[in-house]
């Protein structure tokens, strides 16, 4: 009864309003209405708006509210954050933010290849292998036949003298011990290194007068190459398969069929040549989307193929630090001495050389693309090209690689049409043998390919923004705030050092697994670990730690005893507030 009385009182207050609105709605168009009633009505009820029928009506997207859809949107927000960060080091820093102790990665080392590595190498780098045994046709127009032959005649004798010295006259007994001298793999690497450095110096000194671009090249001896990328096309790990098989879908969250697995490549080239301009592309980005460019599908877990997993940081290093003037790869030398350690029954030396060329070229170009502002979640807007030489001093392989895409994570592995392309020649002997200080069976075709690589002139990409995702600062060194610049520089170098944490992550010992995981029996003396409390220590974020303590004598403000941290963040541009009119109903 009380509620009825209250409602009746409220309705009695609006009787005049209801009567006026009824008159306004029921009145025909010809009848004039008092303006006071009209204004009163329009203040409460908005006037009718005529519906405009259009053919191209844009509706908002339908949002997937499932757990998988929510996680996908969460990943996309992280991808967008990496793209919006305007400094190269901050983008690499952000890749490490989700994991305090590092990512669980599949480790790929140069020269450590399992049996039949080529299909897996093509699949996890999205590389199409061109069905040719020669260099691309583009290299036929680098030099004319007359110029090429004259250079071969000029350089041939110098190369022969270098080969005779390294393979015949040089005594290495005082350089290495007996075990190293008897190790065929080690000696092949030594010969490859020495011969490559000798030939590189000969070619540069003879070609510089006619090829001015070689003067600006930067040479790195045994640089550090590390690449980290996400790949989402492998099969689901067994523990996730079992969880999806036995879980209750009403309670538990099912894992998607495709999950990101993280790859880390560690390269050890003999030497690198870099330039401030990129090499000319072989094909366009549109041509890389051709469906005829096939890639073998090999979804097996890398552990089944013979690779190992470890927990390491997401390090991206192309052999130099960000801000170097020569930031594009020109040529790289690699050793194939590891073939001596491969079992003879494998009989896959050709595939091993091609797989080494694919891993090495993709990783070097990918790290260069990251220094231009791209990442494993953002494709480059222009292709990058690399030239690679694989040798042991006598056998020579030439490789040309074009990087067109770097995004291969679980959300785009099936929709990305781009492919990377690799051209690799057959193994060519530079000479047959050396007898009495003379080279027998010298192959001039190897020297011709070498000259073509060095004569390939880098070019400016006109009308292309080389760093579209970077701001004006671009580097940590250009930050005006000295405190933020010093902090980011120290933390960035510490991340890339791959040093373990001072306090190692807690582990579960065998007795803990027996009493808790197997029999679920807590003894009085048992000390619980974070795993017993349902805490996964490997999900700890990089910024989840106590800041640096500032002694009282060094504080500018006595109350602030913790130092500042400058982890990557996007500056939120808050809109200016405008004074909106306040509407009152009654």
UniProtKB/TrEMBL annotation:
Signal peptide: none annotated. InterPro entries: Ribosomal_mL37/mL65 (IPR010793), Ribosomal_mL65 (IPR039982). This is 28S ribosomal protein S30, mitochondrial. One of its GO terms (biological process) is translation. Keywords: Mitochondrion, Ribonucleoprotein, Ribosomal protein. GO terms for molecular function: structural constituent of ribosome. Pfam families: PDCD9. It comes from the Eukaryota. It is found in: Mitochondrion. It comes from Ceratosolen solmsi marchali. Its main location: mitochondrion. The gene is LOC105364805. PANTHER family: LARGE RIBOSOMAL SUBUNIT PROTEIN ML65 (PTHR13014:SF3), MITOCHONDRIAL 28S RIBOSOMAL PROTEIN S30/P52 PRO-APOTOTIC PROTEIN (PTHR13014). GO terms for cellular component: mitochondrial large ribosomal subunit.
């Amino acid at each position: 009864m009380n509620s009825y009385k209250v409602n009746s009182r409220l309705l009695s207050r609006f009787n005049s309003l209801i009567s006026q609105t009824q008159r306004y709605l029921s009145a025909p168009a010809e009848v004039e209405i008092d303006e006071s009633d009209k204004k009163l009505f329009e203040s409460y009820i908005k006037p009718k708006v005529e519906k405009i029928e259009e053919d191209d009506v844009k509706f908002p997207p339908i949002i997937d509210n499932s757990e998988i859809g929510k996680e996908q949107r969460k990943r996309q927000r992280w991808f967008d954050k990496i793209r919006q960060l305007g400094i190269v080091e901050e983008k690499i820093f952000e890749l490490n933010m989700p994991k305090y102790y590092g990512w669980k990665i599949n480790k790929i080392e140069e020269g450590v290849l399992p049996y039949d590595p080529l299909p897996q190498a093509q699949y996890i780098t999205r590389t199409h292998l061109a069905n040719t045994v020669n260099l691309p046709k583009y290299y036929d127009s680098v030099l004319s036949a007359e110029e090429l032959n004259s250079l071969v005649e000029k350089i041939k004798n110098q190369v022969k003298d270098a080969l005779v010295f390294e393979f015949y006259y040089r005594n290495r007994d005082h350089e290495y011990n007996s075990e190293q001298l008897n190790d065929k793999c080690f000696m092949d690497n030594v010969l490859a290194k020495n011969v490559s450095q000798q030939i590189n110096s000969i070619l540069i000194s003879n070609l510089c007068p006619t090829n001015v671009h070689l003067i600006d090249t930067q040479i790195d001896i045994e640089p550090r190459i590390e690449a980290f990328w996400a790949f989402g096309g492998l099969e689901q790990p067994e523990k996730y398969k079992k969880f999806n098989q036995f879980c209750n879908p009403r309670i538990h969250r099912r894992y998607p069929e495709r999950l990101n697995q993280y790859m880390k490549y560690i390269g050890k080239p003999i030497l690198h040549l870099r330039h401030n301009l990129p090499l000319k592309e072989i094909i366009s980005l549109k041509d890389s989307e051709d469906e005829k460019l096939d890639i073998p599908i090999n979804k097996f877990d890398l552990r089944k193929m013979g690779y190992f997993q470890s927990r390491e940081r997401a390090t991206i290093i192309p052999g130099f630090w960000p801000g170097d003037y020569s930031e594009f790869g020109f040529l790289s030398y690699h050793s194939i001495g590891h073939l001596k350690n491969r079992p003879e029954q494998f009989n896959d030396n050709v595939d091993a050389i091609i797989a080494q060329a694919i891993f090495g070229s993709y990783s070097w170009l990918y790290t260069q693309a990251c220094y231009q502002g791209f990442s494993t979640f953002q494709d480059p807007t222009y292709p990058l090209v690399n030239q690679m030489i694989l040798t042991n001093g006598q056998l020579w392989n030439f490789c040309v690689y074009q990087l067109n895409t770097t995004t291969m994570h679980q959300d785009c592995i099936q929709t990305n049409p781009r492919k990377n392309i690799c051209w690799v020649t057959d193994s060519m002997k530079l000479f047959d043998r050396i007898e009495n200080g003379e080279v027998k069976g010298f192959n001039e075709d190897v020297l011709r390919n070498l000259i073509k690589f060095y004569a390939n002139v880098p070019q400016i990409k006109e009308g292309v923004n080389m760093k579209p995702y970077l701001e004006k600062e671009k580097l940590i060194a250009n930050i005006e705030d000295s405190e933020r610049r010093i902090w980011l520089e120290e933390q960035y170098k510490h991340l890339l050092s791959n040093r373990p944490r001072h306090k190692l992550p807690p582990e579960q010992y065998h007795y803990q697994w027996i009493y808790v995981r197997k029999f679920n029996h807590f003894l009085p003396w048992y000390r619980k670990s974070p795993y017993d409390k349902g805490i996964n220590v490997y999900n700890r974020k990089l910024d989840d730690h106590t800041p640096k303590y500032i002694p009282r004598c060094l504080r500018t403000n006595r109350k602030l005893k913790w130092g500042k941290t400058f982890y990557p963040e996007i500056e939120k541009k808050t809109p200016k507030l405008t004074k909106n009119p306040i509407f009152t109903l009654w």
